[in-house]
Amino acid sequence: MSNKKILVLPGDGIGNEVMSEVLHIMDWMAKNKTLSFDVSERLVGGTAYDKEGDSISDSTMQEALDCDAILFGAVGGSKWDGVDRNKRPEAALLRLRKELDLFANLRPAVVFDALADSSSLKLDIVKGLDILTVRELTSGVYFGQPRGVSKIDENEEKAIDTQSYTTSEIDRISRVAFDLAKLRNNKVTSVEKSNVMETGMFWKKVVTKIHKDEFSSVELNHMLADNCAMQLVRNPKQFDVILTDNLFGDLLSDVSAMLTGSLGMLPSASLGSISKTGTRAAMYEPVHGSAPDIAGKGLANPLAMIMSFAMMLKYSFNMIEDSALIEKAVQNVLSGGFRTADIKQDGKTILSTSQMGQKVIEELSKLDGK
Ligand code: NAD
Fold first, then answer.
1. Are residues 55 and 131 in the same domain?
2. For this structure, is 250 an active site residue?
3. Domain ends where: 240, 262, 284?
4. Residue nearest to atom 36 of ligand 1 (CA)
5. Roughly what angle, to the nearest 10 degrees, separates helices 303-315 and 320-335?
6. 161 is catalytic
7. Total tally of structural domains belonging to the chain
8. What is the pLDDT of residues 15-44, one digit of tens each?
9. C-alpha dist (Å) from residue 275 to 100, 272, 290, 320
10. Position 75 in a domain
11. Is there a domain that residue 358 lies in?
């Protein structure tokens, strides 16, 4: 039995629908794998603003700080467009990332054989693709000072953002990338613009040093960010782990994600530092948003949310086999010809959100011999 504390934050729109399917899988695990979690569910985003006056209340935030891992659905919607910036649905996400210091964003891009022809690239380029982008999430140009808009003279204004990184910020994200590479194909590509940016040269220097001192068994390559963008669409299978900063990671992880063909299939994790007691703050969420256009219609693909839960089992609780079991179940459902509307293909059976969740559970039972 496990008593890991999970905070479930379904959020708005399809966040609720996709999270329901994960809760069913947790029930299945409690019954069949004698694994139970201590789950508490709270409001977040616009729904929390409507009921509690803020997109994340202080008590929910305290629970987030006290739990072992957070499962997050999605937030947002035009209903809250007029709300104060610091109470907007998205402010909850930023507060969680900031207060939990979730500096490492992990975005896997895995192409399932059954969906390989949904990619906009040719089948042979993406078939079997499995890459992981490790993006620094709490520093760089989105946070650097000074920033803002100032007046130069009557007719002219100037906007400034500052790209800045310290040794320790690069050091800690590099460690995450090297550690994860060891669990995969042992290869890290560090991406920057060392040809034109001071921070790029510095990034390369710090990554090279930590690699030499502590991770020399991992293969390390350096690549310029513009080349990386090209290589991702030319020959993405050359990559295993891509290590990069906040800005380049934002762009490159979207490119790598789209190689897989569907937003509804993409999980993510955001990790903090390991504390003295050996625990690590962590939040798992699908890459997609609250999809107001399809909310409440049973059209949402729950697989990104389900695979975010599988990532949680792997990275927060070291439940490698259970995580792999869920991934295998998803794979089998897809190769069995079942799809949600967003990944529909000719000749395949279209399922609703809850039917897809149910299919994954049936497959889990089959794989588990039940
Ligand atoms: P979105 O990801 O919500 O939707 C983009 C498109 O993809 C829509 O057509 C939607 O129907 C489709 N889609 C997304 N997820 C899907 C799924 N699981 N199954 C099937 N189809 C899916 O992005 P958007 O429309 O730009 O934003 C909508 C709202 O979500 C906005 O308020 C935005 O701020 C918010 N948002 C939140 C997060 C988050 O909570 N992490 C991330 C992105 C966007």
1. no
2. yes
3. 262
4. 289
5. 160
6. no
7. 2
8. 999 999 999 999 999 999 877 899 999 999
9. 11, 9, 32, 22
10. yes
11. yes
CA–CA distance, 271 with 308 (Å, rounded to integer): 13
For residue 300, give the ligand 1 atom closest to its CA.
19
Shortest-distance Cα residue to atom 1 of ligand 1:
289
193 is catalytic: yes
Share of the chain above pLDDT 90, in %: 85
Residue 257 structural domain? 109-262
How far the first Cα of the chain sits from its last, in Å, is 19
Is 356 inside a domain boundary?
yes
Query: Which one of 239, 262, 285 terminates a domain?
Result: 262
- Pick the catalytic residue from 226, 297, 344, 366: 226
Q: Is 226 a catalytic residue?
A: yes
**Residue 189's domain is classified under what CATH number?**
3.40.718.10
pLDDT tens column, 89-117: 999 998 999 899 999 999 999 999 889 88
Asked if 90 and 48 count as a contact pair (C-beta separation under 8 A), the reply is: no
Is 240 in the same domain as 182? yes
Give the Cα separation of 177 and 135 in Å (integer). Answer: 9
**Pocket perturbation via mutation, ligand 1, pick of 18, 263, 303 by most ligand atoms within 8 A of CB:** 263
The answer to whether residues 65 and 134 belong to one domain is no
CB contact set of 156 (below 8 Å; sequence gap of 6+): none
The answer on 146 and 205 residing in a single domain is: yes
Nearest to 226 by CA among 203, 205, 208, 244: 244
- Closest residue (by CA) to atom 38 of ligand 1? 289
Kindly give the number of the ligand 1 atom that is closest to the alpha carbon of 304: 18
Residues with CB under 6 A from ligand 1: 14, 74-77, 90, 93, 263-264, 285, 288-294, 300-301, 304, 342
Catalytic residue (choose from 12, 54, 68, 193): 193
Mean pLDDT of 212-230: 98
Q: What pTM was estimated for this model as a whole?
A: 0.91
